Each structure stands twice: as structure tokens, then as C-alpha cells.
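Work Package 3 (structural annotation) set out to generate three-dimensional models for the target panel prioritized at the project kickoff. During this period the team completed the workflow that converts sequence records into C-alpha cells, so that structures can be stored uniformly alongside our sequence database. As a representative example, we reproduce one entry of 204 residues exactly as it appears in the project archive.
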Amino acid sequence: MKNLSKTQLSVLGQLSTKAYRHLVAVGYPSNGYDEWRHEFTADHCGGIDSWRKLSQKHYVPLCNALRAIIGLKPMADNTPKTDAAALIWTIRDRARHWELSTAYIAAIVRDRFGVDARADMSLDTMLSGLDCWQLTQLLYTVQARGRRNTAKTAERFEVDAPAEVHTSRSTIPPDRLKDWRGDVDASPRPQRGRRSANPLQTAP
């Protein structure tokens, strides 16, 4: 899975600073911010204490642990829990973006991997038997076909190709490539919630 983006690291920085200040105000903890932050991260991320080593699966649980300290409602966690699940989610998202049908994806799967893939299958069922390498290759193919089809359509009608819209941070390319291509970040942003009755309540 991808590491955390700059935006996600910034959100963690803001939440952790507010959480630490709140705990200091009520007499806890006694150690410094950096030491507390590393210990807190390790406690909620399976022993990993550096944010730069975290993957997407750690982001929402860690955010929710920090949000609970300052009395904010938890964020919904829809993050795929395995690399294969993340790839399937991304393939589904990109296929929807480029309007590639299940039958079209099935034909690619049959041709590339010799797997029994039919148009009447759901995408999850069709892709569940592929390993991570095959899913990665399929994602590359889906992206290439989608961009090629979009470019051909734009050329035929003599218009500019539309910007590539991303509904999840996991599909957004690095900043320089995103800016060069004009990709649009439409991923949801954390929303503010009401404070809970117990500001010291911690996430499970």
C-alpha cells in the first residue's frame, strides 16, 4: 500500500498537536511532544512509530485515536486492508472513471492471464483469483487503455482531453506529475464533528 501523502501527514500533525496540548492541559503526559507522538503512533500502528513508514491502512485508525482525545467524531474507515483489496478498489475506481465495462475488463483478464473471466461476473469475483502482480499489471493496462480511449475521443471531436479526476488519495500520482497532467483531487476531506461528552475517551 502507498505511504501517507503530504496532506495526510499535515492532518496528523494538526490533530496530534491539538491532542497533545489537550493532554498537557489536564496534566498528562509528562514527556515531550515528539516522544509522546512516537509512542502514541507505535501503540496504534502495530509498533511502527514513524509516520513516514505508515501505509494507508494506518491513517484512519490513527486519526480516530487522536480525534477521540480532542472530542471529535470518528472518521469512517473504508480503507482496503490488504494490498490485493487496495488494487481491486483502484481498478474498480479507474474503470468507472473511464467508463470501461465489466465485459471489457473481463476480455483483458482472459487475454493477459488466461483466467476464466466472464461479463456476467462481478468485478470483485472476477479479480479475486488474481495475485498482486497480476492485479498491478491489470491496473497499468486499464489506465493505459482508459487514457488512450479518452485521447482518441478528444482528438476526434477536436477538444481538450478532460482532466483525470481522483476520488481517493490512493490513485493520485506524485505532485509534479499531477500538476503537469492537470489531475483533479476530488478525494473527501476530514470533516469536523461535535465534541464528545468525555474528552479523554480513547479509541479502541
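The first helix runs from residue 6 to 25.
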